[in-house]
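for the recovery benchmark. tokens below, seq after
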């Protein structure tokens, strides 16, 4: 029987659950160890140095729990810290930005991509670079009219507007994703994107898919909402297939069974803050029970 691989994931709080859900729904042969750094949320206004330190602590912890692959389920960390983290740990890692940017390039039909994200992610310009890199690597829009126009130099494909949304994460963490407050604030944040005429909007923070009903209501049906988590799952699936092959050909060695054998169910949660609050908010957001939430203090 195929062994279930252990995926370690981290985010500042409940946001990474949107990525976790996609993974658990689509990939059967995995188990997830999740760390939510709820004592230090939000990450979206942190410096790169802080996010590198938090990332190092989270990854070291997840590896100690048996993680064989790391999904950085936080755009702010992916946008700033991931290149440094990749150099420090000898474990495959996936972030949110490259898969999200590639998906946006494939799905846009007018070449006018918008982004909502934390201030840190917006400031990093990581998504704009990701879009340019995707095009440079030969990724093209699926829409044939746009593809032709772009190839003939008649239509650009680019990130035309990025909007920081600092109040979204505290709203989601407080369980207010579907509230009148969220709607009012979203209206203000989305206005410049509507004015810029974006046709595809990247949800560049893993907390934001919980706000998708509100965002959809305000944007209408004409704007495509891009959740990078869907692309991350596909890339994770490919990575896991490669790992299987590498293991069979002896290129990598599977971790000791004592580590992999830790007796976790399909998902196991650790948080640095209040486990009860995480459980309550997570239950409401996912609409399914979250058990097994343990508190762990990392860093100082
Ligand atoms: N969910 C994270 C992200 O994708 C962090 C948001 C925050 O804590 O500000 O950016």
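predicted aa per position
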């Amino acid at each position: 029987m195929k062994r279930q691989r252990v995926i370690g994931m981290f985010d500042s709080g409940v946001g990474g659950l949107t990525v976790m859900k996609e993974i658990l729904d689509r990939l059967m042969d995995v188990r997830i160890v999740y760390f939510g750094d709820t004592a230090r949320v939000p990450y979206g206004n942190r410096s790169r140095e802080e996010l590198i330190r938090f990332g190092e602590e989270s990854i070291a912890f997840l590896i100690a729990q048996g993680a064989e692959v790391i999904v950085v389920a936080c755009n702010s960390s992916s946008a700033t810290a991931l290149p440094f983290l990749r150099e420090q740990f000898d474990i495959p890692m996936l972030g949110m930005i490259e898969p999200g940017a590639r998906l946006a390039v494939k799905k846009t039909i007018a070449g006018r991509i918008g982004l909502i994200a934390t201030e840190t992610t917006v400031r990093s310009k990581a998504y704009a670079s990701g879009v340019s890199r995707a095009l440079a690597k030969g990724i093209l829009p699926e829409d044939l009219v746009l593809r032709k126009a772009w190839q003939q130099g008649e239509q650009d494909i680019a990130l035309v507007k990025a909007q920081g949304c600092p109040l979204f994460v505290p709203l989601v963490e407080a369980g207010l994703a579907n509230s009148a407050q969220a709607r009012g604030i979203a209206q203000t944040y989305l206005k410049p994107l509507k004015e810029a005429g974006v046709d595809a909007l990247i949800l560049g923070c893993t907390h934001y898919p919980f706000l998708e009903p509100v965002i959809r209501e305000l944007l209408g049906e004409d704007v495509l909402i891009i959740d990078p988590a869907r692309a991350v799952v596909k890339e994770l699936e490919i990575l896991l297939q490669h790992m299987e092959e590498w293991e069979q050909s002896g290129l990598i060695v599977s971790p000791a069974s004592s580590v992999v054998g830790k007796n976790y169910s399909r998902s196991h949660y650790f948080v640095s803050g209040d486990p009860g609050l995480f459980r309550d908010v997570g239950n409401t957001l996912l609409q399914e029970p979250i058990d097994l939430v343990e508190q762990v203090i990392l860093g100082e």
